Amino acid sequence: MPSNAIVLPSPEKGWTLFADGSASAQGDSMAGLAGKRADVVVGLPAAAVSAFVVTLPDTDAELYESMVFAQLEKRGLANRNGATLYDFEKIDSGPEGNAFVVTVVPSLNDDLVLPNAAGYATAAGLRNHGESPCLVYREHGRLVLAVFIGHHPAHLQLLGSPQIGAAAAGEINLALLSLRGEPAFADREIGLLELAVSDVPEADLTGFQKSLTIPATHSGDPAAVRKSHTRDRLLPQAVIRARSRHRNFRRNTVIGIAALILYLVIGAWIVTNAKQTRERIESLESQIEIVQPDVERIQLAGQRWSQLEPAFDLAYFPVVQLSRLTSALPGSGVVVREFRTSGRAIRVRGQARDVQLANRLLEDLQGMDAFSAYSWSMPNPKMESNNTATFEIEGKSKNEAAE
């Protein structure tokens, strides 16, 4: 059974769609029959196809394509605009080289282009001719002679005679005679012809069979289709472009779906993480609310201790501080006029012989280990009329500043 639906030229006019090996629909338009199906194989009519056998010397496989195209140009089958579709298949090899069956579509009409087609092949190659090397059938109102080598149509010819009879047999005899002169058919016996044409009058059939040089069998019906055998080289550019667009669309769709899935996964992770973060924040806030009273009590106790610390720490006693200040005074040149202390703050006002001595006193206080708990500062001393300098030095507890 065919693996695809096949559309073939009808015997009289239009096209016939075959499915599961039998005709399922018929219509005037090939595109109308196929519709949007992507499994349809198009059978090219004999009027659009040429076939011949050529023997080429044994060489690299990559060179055969250019050699076959040279044969097309030699036979006048190559289209100058580069739209020629051609295919070639090796059928035999011998001392003289390799024999190829060449199929050519010199120019493809627009009505034969089916963008969604699964493939292209010759209509003769899709017809089942059994064991007969010759097949005669009707296509679009004209008789077609197809000569096969195996399952490959090696010769296609539209007969000038419109009906089966002695005249058609004479054309076939001449065609077979010319083929016997070709090397590919010299050793091949063409001993049987199958006539797949319906509604042939008995007298015409008898005259046809008597006039033929080889035996002929009459099947009475158009030859049934065989399993489709398509070749990518026969694909029109429109089909190739349509396939490329389909692949790109499918690839972009897959990428889009993958991106959407990734977006959803990342979004779900962000939502979950945000929910967990919010739960942790709420938990910490609950813990803060629980320990807040204890923190406030500790802070209050610290403040109270700071207030009471001068009463317990010897370094905060005014007499001790004054004694240490006195030890920092230079031997002469500095007189202390006022000394005040609250334990955590010390203020010293005095008069110095010059500004340098006032600054020296500030530096000595800053360098004393006994006053290391204080941060000392002094505004610019005031110069008096007698050239002495009045100064005011203030020391504040570093711990108090930090608090």
Overview of this structure, please?
The model has no long low-confidence stretch (mean pLDDT 84). This protein has 403 residues and is of the alpha+beta class. The chain has three domains: 162 residues, no CATH class; 63 residues; 88 residues, General secretion pathway protein M, EpsM (Gyrase A, domain 2). It is rod-shaped. β6 and β7 form a beta hairpin. 38% of the residues lie in helices and 27% in strands. The protein starts with a strand and ends with a helix. The strands form four sheets. A five-stranded mixed beta sheet has the order 3-2-1-4-8. Strands 11-10-9-12-13 form a five-stranded mixed beta sheet, with no helix packed on it. Strands 14, 15, 16, 17 and 18 form a five-stranded antiparallel beta sheet that branches.
What are the salient characteristics of this protein?
403 residues; alpha+beta; Gyrase A, domain 2; 10 helices; rod-shaped
Short recap of the structure:
This protein is about 40% helix and about 25% strand.
Task: Please specify the SSE layout and strand pairing.
Blueprint: E1 5-9, E2 15-19, E3 22-27, H1 30-34, E4 40-44, E5 50-56, H2 64-75, E6 85-94, E7 97-105, E8 119-122, H3 123-126, E9 134-139, E10 142-149, E11 152-158, H4 166-180, H5 183-186, E12 193-196, H6 202-211, E13 216-218, H7 237-312, H8 318-328, E14 334-341, E15 345-352, H9 355-367, E16 374-377, E17 382-383, E18 389-397, H10 398-402
Parallel strand pairs: 1-4, 4-8, 9-12, 12-13
Antiparallel strand pairs: 1-2, 2-3, 5-7, 6-7, 9-10, 10-11, 14-15, 15-18, 16-18, 17-18
